[in-house]
Amino acid sequence: MSIRTRPNPRLSAWSAAARSIASSSPASLFRNSLQPVAHDEAQSDSRNVRMLRMIMFGKPGAGKGTLSGRLVKKYDILSLSTGDLLRMHIQDKTEIGRMAKEIVAHGGLVPDELMLQVVTSKLDHLHNKHWILDGFPRTLAQGELLNTHLNKQNTPLSLVVNLDVPDDIILSRISDRWVHLPSGRVYNLSYNPPKVEGFDDETGEPLTKRPDDNPEIFARRLEKFYSTTSPLLDFYARLSQTRISPPPHRHPHQHPHQLAFHTKPPHRLMLQSISGTTSDEIWPQLETVLKDAFPGLKERVDSADIRRRHSLSDAIAAASVAASMPSK
Predict the structure, then answer these.
(1) Which residues form the Adenylate kinase active site lid domain (predicted)?
(2) Among 207, 213, 182, 211, which Cα is nearest to 195's?
(3) Residue 7 to residue 86: CA distance in whole angstroms
C-alpha cells in the first residue's frame, strides 16, 4: 500500500527560492562567465582574414615602384605614397598641409611627428583594407613612431620586404635608364627599351635622364640608404621575433560578467628578404610570399578576367591545332 503525501506549498516555495539563489550565486556567475560568447559566423570569418599591411625597402633603383605597381594592378591592394599624401594635404589646405607648406617654404624638413600625421590620416581609415606604404618610414625614429601608432590602432604591420639587388646591377640599371618625365614611364636599354630609341612609346616625346642618374650621385644615395635603412631593418628584425596578442573581442550584447576571449591568433610581423637582379626575377618570389602568408588576398576582377580570357584563348587555339592534325 503506497502512501501519497500532499505537496507542501511552503516547502515548494522555499525550494524555488533556493534554486534562484543558487543560480545567481558568485560561483554560478563565475561558471557562466566562463562560457564563450557565440558570435556571428560571417563576422568571425571577416575578423580572421589576415590583412596585408606592408612596407618595401630597397636601394635606389632596386625596382620598388615597378613591383608595387604590379601588386596593385593584380591584387586588391591600395598603394599609399607619402609624397602624394603630403601634396594632397597642401592642396586641400588642411591644418597639416598648412603647417607642412610653411616649413617647406622656409627650406626646412617636415618633422617626423607631422609626417606621421600625414600618413596616419589615411591609414586610420583602412582597417579592413590591404595596403602598401611607400616613402615612410625612412629613419629609425620614423619607424618607431609608426609602429607605436599602428599598434595602438590594433593594425600592426604584417609584412616588411627588403629587395636585395647587388650594387653593380643597380648602377648598370641606372646608367641605362631613361624616363618620360610628364608620365613617369621608365625605360631601360638593357631589358625594357623604348620601341624607338630616345622616344616615349605612347606620346612620341623625347626621353630624358634623371638628374640624379649618374655614378657620383648614386654613390651618395647608396651611402645614405645604408646609413638610414640598416637600423630600420634591424628594428623590424627584432619586431619579427615577438608576438603581439590582439585585444579580446567583446560582443556588443555581451554580459559584463562574461569573459571575452581572443578570436585571433597572436600577431607576428613577417620580415622577408628577396634577392634578384631584375624585377622579373624578383616578382614570382614576391608573389609567392604574399599568396602563402595572406590567403585572403583577392585578385582584382579585371585582372582575373584577363587571365581567364587568355586561358580560354589558349584552350581554343590548342583545340584548333589538335583538330587540324591528321589522325594516325
Answers:
(1) 177-212
(2) 207
(3) 82
172, amino acid identity? S
* Residue-wise burial string across 219-255, b where 16 or more C-beta atoms lie within 10 A, e elsewhere: eeebeebeeebeebbebbeebbeeeeeeeebeeeeee
| 142 contacts 55 by C-beta, under 8 angstroms | no
Residue position matching grid coordinates 617626423: 112
And the C-alpha cell for 48? 580572421
Residue 177 near residue 213 (C-beta atoms within 8 A): yes
Residue 251 binned pLDDT confidence (cut-offs 50, 70, 90): low
Active centre residues (catalytic): 64, 138, 177, 210, 221
47-68 b/e (C-beta count within 10 Å ≥ 16 → b) = eeebbbbbbbbbbbbbbbbebb
Instruction: Tell me how far apart the alpha carbons of residues 155 and 152 are, in angstroms, rounded to a whole number.
Output: 8
Model pLDDT for residues 212-246, shown as the tens digit of each residue: 787 888 888 889 999 999 999 999 999 999 876 66
pLDDT tens string 293-303:
999 999 998 76
> Where are the extended beta strands (E) located within the chain?
53-58, 78-81, 131-134, 159-164, 177-180, 185-188, 270-275
Amino acid code (one letter) for 33: S
Among the listed ranges 6-10, 188-192, 201-205, which one has the minimum average pLDDT value? 6-10
Phi and psi, residue 213, nearest 5°: -90, 65
d(CA 231, CA 239): 13
